[in-house]
TrEMBL record:
SUPFAM superfamilies linked: Nucleotide-diphospho-sugar transferases (SSF53448)
Pfam families: NTP_transf_3
Domain of life of the organism encoding this protein: Bacteria
Identification of the protein by name: MobA-like NTP transferase domain-containing protein
GO MF entries: nucleotidyltransferase activity
Domain MobA-like NTP transferase: start-end pairs: 31-101
Annotated organism of origin: Symbiobacterium thermophilum (strain DSM 24528 / JCM 14929 / IAM 14863 / T)
Coiled coil start-end: none
Length: 141
């Protein structure tokens, strides 16, 4: 069963925003998700194929897409690590979750640099929309 939860969390750090968005998965234990996919709102070039690759590559723990050996977003957090995610101190940031569980990280190569790009301005958004008519740039080493 898949569920979608959107949040407009506005926080000074990524950990707090992710905790706010992930909390419904924790409080709605009836759904008991096997994995939570953390996706950023400023990456409009992420396609369903990228998400499918990440979910297909998930083996538990943390699953992160890579392009040219660089880690990107979105990423998966296994149910077994959800409590750790939700209790990260705000000053720690999300990187702390990966530092705590280095042996539980699975890297999934994808064929697009969309996982590395974010959109921070209206003009960058317009360029991204124009690109989306084609495709994001291919992943190059």
């Amino acid at each position: 069963m898949a569920a979608l939860h959107l949040t407009e969390a506005r926080a000074r750090d990524g950990a707090t925003a992710v905790q706010t968005g992930s909390a419904p998965a924790e409080t709605n234990r009836g759904a008991d998700p096997a994995v939570v996919l953390i996706a950023l709102g400023d990456q409009p070039l992420i396609t369903p194929a990228v998400v499918a690759s990440i979910l297909t590559g998930h083996r538990g723990g943390l699953t992160v897409p890579t392009c040219a050996e660089r880690r990107g977003h979105p990423f998966c957090v296994d149910r077994s690590l959800l409590d750790d995610l939700l209790t990260l101190p705000p000053e720690a940031g999300l990187r702390e979750l990966f530092l705590r569980h280095p042996g539980r990280v699975t890297l999934v190569p994808v064929a697009t640099d969309a996982i590395l790009r974010d959109i921070d301005t209206p003009s960058a958004y317009r360029r991204a929309l124009a690109e989306r008519a084609g495709e994001a740039q291919a992943c190059r080493p």
